[in-house]
Specification:
The complex is a heterodimer. Chain A is of the alpha+beta class. Chain A is about 45% helix and about 15% strand. In chain A, helix 3 runs antiparallel to helix 4 and helix 6 runs antiparallel to helix 11. In chain B, a hairpin with a 6-residue loop joins strand 1 and strand 2. By secondary structure, chain B is of the alpha/beta class. Classes of the chains: A alpha+beta, B alpha/beta. Chains A and B meet through helix 1, helix 8, strand 9, strand 10 and strand 11 of A and strand 3 and helix 3 of B.
Chain lengths: ~400, ~160
């Protein structure tokens, strides 16, 4: 047995030197640990180079690009604006609908066209269903990061139901190519509205169940409260967006603050972190924002389902789109935050330049700021709370 | 503030560094000198009337006439206004002042623009490639880019 007196106990002046109880000073070195690229907690192929002093993290250097396909180069080589959409699907592959939606809105604004009412309603329903599906993955895998396996299975059960709705609409379960410039690839099938309403009725009580299982679980709260605190000013300076920004108490949602589509017709509330169990902007706040956003999405879906008008699902646009020379930056709110498309057109049928402002890319860049001083075990939870999708970080 | 007011404000403060503006475009933009970006952006962020605290996006562009450009999309959360800044440099001397110490988010965006377009940001704390391997040659998003035959002994075109 080791006697308690022989254990190193106190840190003296600077980290890196330890004073034992017998009065000796031991000098320690910083160590570099690699986490990833193949690691279950990095949610994809992300490599984190961690500089540690004992258990304390001094710095984190993310290395990205393992999934880089140069979406932007692909897009420049397409012969038609519509051909870019399948590539948009593959950026944020757990929220493909939202990516397509953002791109379609951007090109439509460049073309200055209006899409039919029915299309707008269906787009909102699909985007919000996708938001729930994406948050379910975020919450489920976050539970695994904290060591709770059961919520993951619950989340995936419910996500299946949403994917079933998508499948009956467009045949695909992950990468849809559904929202096109000027409309949709198909109309919704006749049974869709009833089944979606049924899902909303089913899902509301489930959110409470998730909260009981995970959110207010004592261990989960202990692991996430006061961990990875992202202060408001840092969040804004690093242009964080989505639940990452709102978790820090910034009341900002592009669906309300930079309106696109028809979000201004529905009643819903922007959710922000309030530091209920710890500090404003900690990992728990980011988690609870996602939980509450799912509830708001259900509200929006129910309102949209009850008002969906009859009509055509394709605007009369030419097969080969040629926008006038010009440029536009359009941003939309995906589950991860502000997805911006900066499109430059030179008047031909293929885009001259498309730059994608990927929310996960920007949110990840703040990781070193919020990890310094944390323990190694907490890094897993901090990285998980950012909710990155590497397909989008690397594009 | 309207784009017109922002332009007049900048013109009064920085004079010759404000080169050009298109204020009737759908998204009005102002072109600024490439060696003054840091100073101008810092002013836009700190001045109470402009207060551009949020940089949405920074994009590098190859204009294909020997010019490269950087486009900044700025938003003010407090004032709820937006503006687009542009700056242009030549291909032979692709240097633009970094704004990484004004907005933290610019750090990675500038690394990406350096990686893919080849714009060098003066004053950037850590200008390395970010998406491509560190030993990749050339900048793929330049319009005159030729895809290499081989990379590390592997055939590149598929």
């Amino acid at each position: 047995m080791i006697e308690s007196q022989t254990l190193p106990t106190t840190y003296v002046t600077q980290p890196g030197a330890i004073k034992t109880s017998s009065g000796k000073t031991l000098h320690t070195d910083e160590m570099i640990i690699n986490m990833g690229p193949q690691h279950p907690s990095t949610h994809g192929v992300l490599r984190l180079e961690i500089v540690v002093d004992g258990e304390i993290i001094n710095d984190v250097i993310p290395h990205i690009g393992y999934l880089h396909r140069c979406f932007e180069k692909h897009a420049e080589h397409m012969t038609n604006y519509q051909q870019v959409i399948p590539y948009c699907d593959r950026m944020d592959y757990v929220a493909a609908m939202n990516n397509d939606h953002g791109y379609a809105v951007a090109v439509e604004r460049l073309l200055k066209i209006q899409v039919p009412e029915r299309v707008e309603y269906i787009r909102v329903i699909m985007a919000e269903l996708q938001r729930i599906a994406s948050h379910l993955i975020a919450i489920g895998t976050y539970g695994i990061d904290a060591g709770a396996f059961t919520p993951f299975l619950y989340c995936f059960t419910d996500r299946e139901k949403i994917l079933d709705l998508f499948e009956m609409t467009c045949g695909a379960r992950l990468l849809y190519n559904y929202i096109w410039v000027g409309g949709l690839s198909h109309d919704i099938p006749p049974k869709f509205v009833d089944q979606a309403k049924e899902f909303c009725r089913y899902f509301r009580p489930r959110i409470k169940q998730f909260n009981d299982l995970l959110t207010y679980n004592e261990i989960f709260v202990k692991r996430t409260a006061n961990v990875g605190v992202l202060p408001k000013d840092v969040a804004i300076n690093y242009s964080c967006s989505g639940p990452m920004l709102r978790g820090s108490g910034v009341n900002w949602d592009l669906r309300r603050d930079d309106p696109y589509c028809i979000y201004d017709r529905f009643e819903w509330e922007v959710q922000v972190g309030k530091g209920e169990v710890g500090t404003v902007g900690d990992c728990w706040d980011r988690h609870i924002v996602r939980m509450r956003e799912m509830e708001q999405s259900v509200n929006i879906i129910e309102q949209a389902l009850s008002k969906i008008p009859e009509g055509n699902v394709q605007a009369a646009i030419p097969k080969r789109i040629r926008p006038d020379a010009g440029e536009i930056y359009v941003r939309t709110e995906t589950p991860r935050g502000e997805l911006g498309y900066y499109i430059i057109s030179d008047g031909t049928a293929s885009p001259y330049r498309i730059k994608v402002r990927a929310p996960a890319f920007v949110n990840l860049s703040v990781l070193p700021e919020i990890s310094r001083g944390a323990m190694i075990a907490d890094l897993v939870l901090i990285a998980g709370s950012v909710d990155i999708v590497l397909g989008e970080v690397d594009r | 503030m309207t784009p017109q007011e922002i332009f007049e404000d900048l013109k009064q403060k920085f004079g010759d560094a404000i080169l050009e503006a298109k204020l009737d475009a759908p998204q009005p933009w102002i072109r600024i000198a490439e060696n003054k970006t840091n100073e101008i952006c810092r002013y836009l962020r700190d001045a109470e009337r402009t207060n551009f605290d949020y940089m949405s996006c920074l994009s590098g562009v190859d204009y294909n006439d020997g010019k490269l450009g950087v486009v900044y999309h700025l938003t003010s959360m407090a004032q709820k206004h937006k503006i687009v800044l542009k700056t242009v440099c030549t291909k032979e001397n692709p240097h633009v002042q970094s704004v990484a110490d004004v907005w933290g988010t610019a750090n990675w965006h500038e690394r990406e623009a350096y990686d893919l377009i080849g714009i060098v940001f003066d004053g950037h704390p850590d200008l390395r490639r970010i998406l491509l391997p560190y030993d990749w040659e050339g900048h793929p998003l330049r319009k005159d880019y030729k895809v290499p035959e081989f990379y590390d002994g592997m055939k590149v075109p598929y």
